[in-house]
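Example: (diamondback moth) hypothetical protein.
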Amino acid sequence: MSVCKLVVGINKISCISLTNGNAKKIGVSLFRAFSSRDLLKEAYCRTKLKCRSKKLPQDVNPTGVFACNELDLSEVNVYGFDYDYTLAHYKPSLEHLLYNLGREILLEKYNYPPEILKLEYKPNFAVRGLHYDIEKGLLLKLDSFLQIQFGAVYRGLTQVPSDEVLKLYKNRIIPIAYVEGDNRAHKSSRAKMVHLADLFSVPEMGLLCNVAEYFIRNHIDYHPEILFLDVKNSVQSSHPIMHKVVAQNVQEYIRPNPELRNYFQMLQDNQKKLFLVTNSPFHFVNAGMDMLVGHDWRDFFDVVIVNANKPKFFTEVSRPIRVFDKNANTHIWEKVTSLEKGIIYYEGTVKQLQDLTGWSGHQVLYFGDHPYSDLADVTLEHGWRTGAIINELTHEINTLNMHSFKENANWLQMLTQLIEDHQDYKRPEELEVLAQWMAERDYLRNEIKAVFNPQFGSVFRTYHNPTYFSRRLFRFADIYTSNIKHLLRYSTTHTFYPRRGVMPHEYGSYFV
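Written out as structure tokens, the predicted fold is:
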């Protein structure tokens, strides 16, 4: 066991490491009165010893299903699914494809400089859940209280120093109207920030920052909002091309998921109803589901709706649902008065889905990957239960389970408590020691951040708070996991119970 030994010298106390499996106690003889500097160093050593003897948390199960709200599956009779990043999980090749297609459209449609074709995609630059400030041209990470995470603010590919960030925003906390807009009477205003909350936005952010960096380095003046809109429109308008490319070679772009069919079969065997609502076109979905589930995949679903145009599908009330003729690749104009198994439907609204099926309220559990456009309205307006499929969860949990991460996280919490307990010392030699502790704390925080993503850290938390993305996830999802197949481990009568969280005034935990 590695322990820390106090060594008392004439002028100092220091910590050294030694290995002694039988070490139970360490005695220290004090030959003179300590200086305050010595006392602080002794407190540091004792805290370090305590940290090293502390048992590290058990690993988190990467295939777990995690509860934000209590969810009793015995109340659920109807299971609904989104397609992209919910049933179909894409390989990194899809991000490269979207980036390259968007880059070409920037050149051809918007007349951007030909040199941008040399800008290669950086797959590990951005994470989802970030905000883009369309006024200031910054990509940044906010926590659940709308505080900026310093060290996670970028202009192009270049990190913006914290002092410059404070000059730009005047405060670390961003007003909610700036982030979300203000819809109050007589004060309607548009948000100055865009939340990039789906995985399709990751290559979009990569292209945006690459082009911005090119403009900055070549002293080309640009308007941040125009650049954002051009990139956004370019990537989104490339989706039809992407659909065609992926449908022709699903093996290259979609990860196999052989247990998906088993999950659908389990639900069907337990007399559950299944439906699919996706924004993607039928030929694209059909090609993917053929590979993932089999040519008979539609036999599992009681209702299939494509080109749903979410979130409008969940918010509008008057857009008609129509039958889609897959042979003619167009919709039929006749009025739909019932929803039949085996028929493909087009557009429509959630109101029509509920009216024509009788499915409503807590009997419906809907899975999607976007906490807002997939889950918010069905939770708030229609009382559905919701599950979020968060692909990044596997990487996040595997990182949490690293031994070095656990040690750093443990020591960070204990070092922070040590600083808090001794921060009122004011002599110069005391302040010098405290400054060393603060520098070590800053180093640890950045180390913990960088193992998730060097630029922006974890999708789920800033240094100590949940991210803005996490806030929406926890608000609108009853359960979340990284893959639908993980639900196979649970019966259709299983109840998911949320963990009791620790509030600031309750019992402390060194590992949060």
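The CA atoms of residues 151 and 446 lie 8 Å apart.
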